[in-house]
Amino acid sequence: MPVRVVEPSSPSQVAGTTQGNTLPQPCSLLSVGQAFSGTQNVSSLQKDEAWRVNVRIQGCDLDHGYLCGTMEALNVPMADTPVVTFWEGEIVDTKNYTFFTGKWGATAEDDIKHWTKFPSFSPLLSQVEVDGGKSLDLSNYPYIFMRWKEQYFVNVGTDCGLTIAGFYYVCFSCSDGSINGFYYDPNSSPFQKLELKSTNDGKSGFSFSSYELQ
Amino acid sequence: MPTSATSNHPSRPEDLIGRLNSAHTPYEAKLKALRDLKNQIIGNRTKKLAFLKLGAVPSVVSILSSAAAAQGGGGDNREFYESVLIQSAAVIGSFACGLDAGVKAVLDAGAFPLLLSLISHLNEKVADAGARSLKLIYQSKRAPKYEFLQEKNMEFLLSLLNSKNENVTGLGANIITHSCQTTAEQQALSEAGVIKRLVGLLGGSINQKDASLESLAAMVKENPEVSAKFMGPENGRALNVVIELMKDKHPRTRLLACMCLISIRNTSTSYLQDSGIKNSLVSVLLELLDDPGPVGDEAPFVLSSLITEKEDMQKIAFNANLIEKLCEHLNAGSYQAKRLQGIFLLLGDLCSKLECCRDRVLDLQVLNFVTEALAHDSAEVRTAACNFLKNVSRSVKNLSAGQFMNEAVAVPLVRLLCDSSSSVQIAALGAISNIVVDFMAHKSVLVQCGGVKQLVQLSKSMESAIRVNAVWALRNLTFLVSYRCKEEILLELTSATLISLINDPEPSVQGQALALVRNLVDGTLNSINYVFGEDGAVLHAIARQLRSTSKVEVQIQGMYTLSNVASGNELHKEAVMNQLLPQAGNDAEKTLVKFLQSTDSRLCTATLWALINLTFPGSPGTCRRVTELRNAGIITQLKNMINDHCLDVKLRARMALGQLMIFGSVWTWYTSIKV
């Protein structure tokens, strides 16, 4: 018996309030332990120059709009070994964080310029232009928007010739666990694209480990 | 022949006791002996212990008793007997002062009712001596509990509070501080008008103020009703008086005023919430931490009651440089146990929620002091140090940087797993549970220092709190651990222990045990084989528990474990299929549908992932499994879920349905060809 699929999930405006205060629901593909792999184009022009990238989610606290993990860049030209960085993420939940970054050298204009690169952002654009998305309820939206900011190098020193000054605008698809992102750093080449897919260690299915802090 | 009786030198303890005990000693000489004894033991712990050993307390109590009886008979010697009463009460009080063994001896000798009877003595000096002595007894936890709920006792208490004698009113307040514990007692005291009386004492002497503040704190503690009464109009400006006492020149009064205000504050989210009072409380208590005496020892505990579990208060304390101050104290050198316990208690509170506090604590290298604290003689210090470590290691950022998993921390923590106090063991397990969530591949440190062996031992403890924490630590240790480490863990753990933990009578242990297996089978294909040893005994145990438990947390962990197993090869998927849809009977089938119909989205999601893995495209047996699942009515169930209110459930249901439909179409096509 076929059932009609209600499409698409759209963001709604929170009635009677100025605050979109419903937090995003947990998404199992974005939970601790989950791994992703793909590439980052270092130059937006030269598509060939890409680093292989692995990401692992290490911590997630939806109440505080917080996510963190590591990012491993594999074939970095100047480095002998893969370079691992630890990053912390701000989830745009319109409660803890809006679409406007308000720091790290990013203006509202920069924000809009980057967010609009994600097709799934277009239904939100008009409202975001008004209030940064504060009045949007994204709790049922099948995409999660985030900013990932690398905090420190895990396995190399700060003298490795690489920079983590910028941050990523990130869009995560709850449906298939794919991640797209754009690196923003006024001093680096613009719109370096990050493309990641959920990985399963070559197994025939998805696996989920877990820990719980006391 | 030397004569000792007339000597002016202090008597030998034995002689003194001899004189007190002897029936031949005249009462005058006994009075002198009492004075001698009092002078010798005042403020001298060693002497007190020596006289206790010689049985001085029963002797003195006996003199008190006979003097009370004798003066009751009247006569000319009234004044003399009253002196004996005063002196013996003073000696008894001195024995009870600051010495638990002394209090025990005093109570065992039956002094308590005698002292109580002195309170109503006509001679005010005798009443005063009785009250002083009882006050000292009531400073000890060993003092007998006063039953407020008996009408006569309440009347007596009120008479104490209404007395004009400062020591008698003080005694009344001390009795409340000591014995007011239950809501019913707080209520009864409040209804008897005690608050008003205590508020009256706030305007009295220092001792009365202090005693009143302390008992007010005990009366309002966790009792919103009594607290509301204190804040009510009938008590006038009582609150303002207490607030003013935060600025009193006596440190103890300031401390007790803070304690009283915090007790009130903690009963309601609407009391004392303005930033002025919040900042004042923090700054007064911060200053009191520097007091070198008992006030400084107690201040951390009062401050802890202000900030524990309260992020806003922790932030204020952080901004007031509490961490820096505590570090100064640690750097200043060795402290008595209570002070050290207080410092680690506060550091633990501060690090419980705020990342900025954890960062500061690590920057200031507080971890350097932890190793020593973990090995401290006092169990309370060891527990506080463990709790601090547990809270500071709640930081994923610092766990990721491998800040905690090193020998200086892990080795003493593992040693505490054999501690004689079970509360220390539990606290150590809590800290270990967190620090093993290490992302820097340092988990082997714990294996190398014998931690796994100890954890496995404790997972077999008779005490369920220890079992659950031990399994919790093992579960976190196996999170993203290397294959080699997993081998070592399982070698120590054995399948038999794992099975008994899955079947533990405590659901919390079952849940942690299943989460442990879930982590064990995550990762490489080889890892999945862990549940296939001994004819799949572990897998059977998981499935059996899933069928029988009604606890959703256990069901979620069990389902994710099966789902992880089903992410493996054909053999793995078939084994899970056989557990979920066995040939004979349909209990398991019902379980599957029941889980999909659960109101808990997390359980639905876990079950859907198992279905997704079982029908994962590309495996040779997928087509057959799809048919079996269709026959079990899963499709209908999934169709009901594709518009679920929970996004994750909705998306996973669509994914599972998509996979089932693809193969379903093939199967329909295949069977139609066959026909």
TrEMBL record, chain A:
Family the UniProt entry places it in: Belongs to the GID4/VID24 family.
Gene: LOC105174472
Protein name: Glucose-induced degradation protein 4 homolog
GO cellular component, one term: GID complex
Domain of life: Eukaryota
Alphabetical GO biological process terms: negative regulation of gluconeogenesis; proteasome-mediated ubiquitin-dependent protein catabolic process; protein catabolic process in the vacuole; protein targeting to vacuole
Composition bias, Polar residues: 9-21
Region of interest (Disordered), residue spans: 1-21
Pfam families: Vac_ImportDeg
Record organism: Sesamum indicum
InterPro entries linked to this entry: GID4/10-like
UniProtKB/TrEMBL annotation, chain B:
Gene Ontology CC entries for this record: cytoplasm; GID complex; nucleus
Compartment(s): Cytoplasm; Nucleus
Pfam families in UniProt: Arm
Keyword Hydrolase: no
GO biological process: proteasome-mediated ubiquitin-dependent protein catabolic process
Main location: cytoplasm
Residue spans of the ARM repeats: 450-478
Keywords for this protein: Cytoplasm, Nucleus, Repeat
PANTHER family: ARMADILLO REPEAT-CONTAINING PROTEIN 8
Protein name: Armadillo repeat-containing protein 8 isoform X1
Record lineage: Eukaryota, Viridiplantae, Streptophyta, Embryophyta, Tracheophyta
Gene behind this protein: LOC105163622
